Amino acid sequence: MTNHTKTTKLRSIEKTEYVPDELIREILSHAPVKSLIQLKRVSKPWHTIINDPTFINLHLNQAIQHNNFSLLLYNSNHIYSIHDPTSTATTECPSVPFNHGHRDYYDVAGSCDGLILLIPYRGCFGIWNPSTGEFISIPSPYCSENYILTMPWHENMYGFGYGSNRSDYKIVSIFGTGNVKVFSTRSGSRMWKTIEGSNIHVVFGDSLYIYNSSGIFARGAVHWLMCFFVTSTEEEDRIIAYDFGCEEFSTIPMPDRLTNNNEYKRLSKWGESICLFIKDCREWSSHIFVMKEYGVRDSWSKLYTIPEAPIQQNLEAPYTNLRIKWSIVCFINDEKILLKQEGLYNLVLYDTRSCKFVELELHEDLKNVFNERYCSAYAYVPSLVPIKNYEDLIDPCCSPQLLRPM
């Protein structure tokens, strides 16, 4: 190496020392989480910047704004993370850090700011950041003998999100006819809080069944789509919301134009609001309604209509089956929607402009894992949001003695 080359490199290093921190933050805020974790080892100043809560929020907001989603594909025994939902060619299999001593079924019950709420058949709940690998165990609210006997786990309703304080992530669990419990990561307690005097009986009334037991988080509240008895022979669908801030339930108005011909409905998230995916059994078409102004009935708007014909034209069997039930995984951008056939691993990208479907080919490893098995998909935003800060509040043993009702 010549002296001239050495001098040039030294000058380059000296120049980088004068790059404003604001510019470094802005540049790094667009980098993937995996790269940022590696960059933290480069220098102490970068480590400080990347660990700063202000930067973590900046990076998170950038990811949300640009729809930078990753995908969890999972069944009872396996969970895979796909970094680019539009191409499943590259995958990784992060370790789910449950430590039960046995293999149990678990489900993804919610996602918020890149954190995943995992619920097993029995034992501890878990909050997991698949991007950083951090994980904490949380005692189950229904691990006592009475709770297990009165309410099976799969009939519960769950929600994950936050209220006015974004750093205070909360879990709500609803079981039985009026048992509402909330766990707060910032409460300083290892116990679930029973919500006394909630208006759950007034709002729920004579509920018939739940379309989605895992709530959709938006605007500080968790939402469930449910069916209710209006009379002994008449049913009605409603969206029920639980507000983490005021700890109250409310009913979100449904679109006026829905009819009884809608045989299949799913609630999903659209930006910072909610949307409905509805299949009309009379027209054999699907519609996506979005609530453009949260909480306002008149703001419901039919954003897309997905006819059945393009499915027949663009996909081989079994996609031509008119009884296919799709669910929205995520909106990639203003033009594409990632859909999944319920129960199976089939992922399809629908282009709203060309009205064409593109089947996403699974990696061979995934085909071997999910071949002809029940499989679920869940979208999340990769983030640096830490959860190790809450370890001193959580009892990792999930001892039954600690799970007594409050």
Brief overview, please?
The radius of gyration is 23 Å and the shape is globular.
Main features:
single chain, 406 residues, alpha+beta, Neuraminidase, 2 domains, four-stranded antiparallel sheet, 18% helix, disordered C terminus
- What is the CATH homology-level superfamily of the largest domain? Kelch-type beta propeller
Tell me the number of structural domains. 2
CATH architecture term of the largest domain: 6 Propeller
- Percent of sequence in beta strands: 25-35%
Query: Main beta sheet: strand number and arrangement?
Result: 5 strands, antiparallel
Parts with pLDDT < 50 across at least 5 consecutive residues: 9-15, 145-154, 309-322, 393-406
Overall CATH class of the largest domain: Mainly Beta
Count of helical segments? Answer: 9
Give the number of DSSP strands: 24
- Give the overall average pLDDT: 75
Work out the radius of gyration. 23 Å
Give the overall silhouette: globular
| DSSP helix fraction | 10-25%
What structural class do helix, strand and pairing data support?
alpha+beta
Question: What would you say this structure looks like, in words?
Answer:
With 406 residues, the chain is α+β, with helices and mostly antiparallel strands. The protein folds into 2 domains: 19-66, no CATH class; 67-403, Neuraminidase (6 Propeller), CATH 2.120.10.80. It has helices spanning 3-16, 21-28, 33-39, 44-51, 53-65, 145-150, 200-204, 309-314, 364-370; strands at residues 70-74, 79-82, 106-112, 115-120, 125-128, 135-138, 157-162, 169-175, 179-184, 193-194, 207-210, 216-218, 221-229, 235-243, 248-252, 262-270, 273-280, 285-291, 300-306, 326-331, 336-341, 347-351, 356-359, 376-380. Strands 11, 12, 13, 14 and 15 form a 5-stranded antiparallel sheet that branches. It has a 4-stranded antiparallel sheet with strand order 3-4-5-6, with no helix packed on it. The model is unreliable at 9-15, 145-154, 309-322 and 393-406 (pLDDT under 50). This is F-box domain-containing protein. Residues 13-58 form the F-box domain.
